[in-house]
Write a structure and sequence with these properties.
The chain is mainly alpha-helical and 425 residues long. It has two domains: 38 residues, no CATH class; 386 residues, no CATH class. Helix 15 runs antiparallel to helix 16 and helix 17 runs antiparallel to helix 20. The longest helix has 34 residues.
Length: 425
């Protein structure tokens, strides 16, 4: 029955069925074949989403959409361009920097690619950047979003394991910054070799004006982090504060959010949240079946039969997660595999916070890896570029991402320094 369940799952994926429904259909086939009462399906789905910390997901999604609808995307890009536009290939650097700043608002890679790509890809093509580079740097820089707080995958990881979401946010901060710096260096090197354009250096007055216009947006991630780390608010309460702040900025400060825009943003946020919750519910059902059949124990035993060496175990886990990330959506893969692999990693001495960052980083790299790489599809559709050409163009950026992944995997201090400071405080 397990073989049949996985066959149905992969077959429906190949047919283009959304991951959530592929998981649900495969689970249904298993339950019918194993003569399990079908009442189990809604029970396990509801148990998966009936978790308090998941309440912060709709809050952060709505806050990000409100800020984006307020016109904040253009202000962030203008600030990054004022700071970096004078460097060779400066618009590429501004692309990465904007993704880094926008990550603190949206928390998702696909939202980053769609929002920034819609503005930056046409602008880069107009200034003389080749289409492949423009789409590649946009897609790959967007993977910074799920690492830097607030991060939806980190919230899911905390929900699955009981780890502190605040500490998970902190654990992802330095790796996210390191990934962004690596992508910026790669972008600069490619631009220098290809002779990409640069702008005259912005005056101090221009920089200050751009900073002033973007300041309200830049304050949002600061408010979220300071509120959580100071203990004033929980992550769930921080998401509500973020929504109220975004409403204030959009309706009073920028005055760009009317009633019609608010209704549109609310509807879009509700749709995104609902689809995510359906995915979480079906994935929890799928995970229950795997646990019932003792698949996690089998995977753990197989890995530990191969070796008990911590570094080799991490290498094997990285390979598995990178493979899974190429064809499965990040949240679904995290729900199914993270609890299983966490036990293996902890058994060989890996800190749970470090492993959470390793797992999320592996899976978001999959967002820019064929054949499913969602960010590639989004960037390619904006730039009117084929997946084949874009897949070749992202290779240098993927190489840098893998180097950062290796550092995060084998240098625990990168992930654990900031959470350690919070623990000391």
């Amino acid at each position: 029955m397990i073989l049949l369940m996985f066959s149905v799952f992969f077959a429906t994926l190949l047919l283009g069925v959304p991951v959530a429904f592929a998981l649900g259909l495969a689970a249904l086939v298993y339950c019918v074949g194993a003569q399990i009462p079908l009442i189990i399906l809604p029970q396990k789905m509801y148990a998966g989403i009936d978790v308090f910390v998941l309440l912060c997901i709709p809050g952060f999604i709505l806050a990000g959409n409100l800020m984006n609808a307020s016109g904040i995307t253009g202000r962030i890009i203008a600030l990054c361009n004022a700071l970096l536009g004078h460097v060779r290939g400066g618009l590429g650097l501004a692309n990465v920097a904007a993704s880094m700043l926008f990550a603190g608002i949206s928390g998702t890679a696909v939202a980053d690619t769609a929002a920034l790509g819609a503005v930056l890809i046409p602008a880069m093509k107009e200034e003389g950047y080749d289409t492949e580079f423009s789409c590649a740097v946009t897609a790959c820089s967007s993977t910074v979003g799920p690492i830097i707080p607030p991060s939806l995958p980190m919230i899911i990881a905390g929900t699955l394991t009981g780890l502190s979401v605040s500490k998970l946010f902190l654990a992802g901060a330095l790796p996210g910054i390191l990934l962004a710096l690596g992508l910026m260096i790669t972008s600069w090197a490619i631009s220098r070799r290809r002779g990409h354009p640069k702008h005259p250096k912005a005056s101090l007055r221009q920089v200050l004006r751009a900073l002033r216009q973007a300041s309200w947006a830049l304050c949002l991630p600061v408010i979220i982090l300071v509120g959580i780390l100071s203990g004033w608010v929980t992550p769930t309460e921080a998401s509500i504060v973020a929504v109220l702040y975004a409403l204030l900025v959009g309706t009073v400060v920028y005055r760009s959010l009317g009633l019609r825009a608010l209704l549109r943003v609310t509807q879009a946020s509700a749709t995104t949240t609902a689809s995510l919750m359906v995915l979480v519910g079906f994935a929890n059902l799928f995970s229950w079946i795997l646990a019932r059949e003792q698949i996690p124990q089998a995977i753990a035993a197989t890995l530990l039969d191969l070796t008990h060496n911590k570094y080799l175990i991490l290498l094997l886990i990285n390979g598995l997660l990178l493979l899974v990330g190429t064809f499965m959506e990040t949240i679904a893969a995290l729900i199914i595999l993270f609890p299983v692999l966490l036990k293996v990693a902890v058994s060989v001495g890996v800190d749970p916070l470090q492993f959470a960052v390793i797992a999320v980083l592996n899976l978001v790299i999959g967002l820019t890896t064929p054949p499913v790489g969602v960010c590639l599809f989004v960037a390619g559709s904006i730039g009117n570029l084929s997946l084949t050409r874009l897949s070749i163009a992202v290779l240098p950026f993927l190489g840098v991402s893998l180097i950062v992944l290796s550092l995060v995997t084998y240098v625990p201090a990168i992930s654990l320094t900031l959470p350690g400071l919070l623990q000391g405080h």
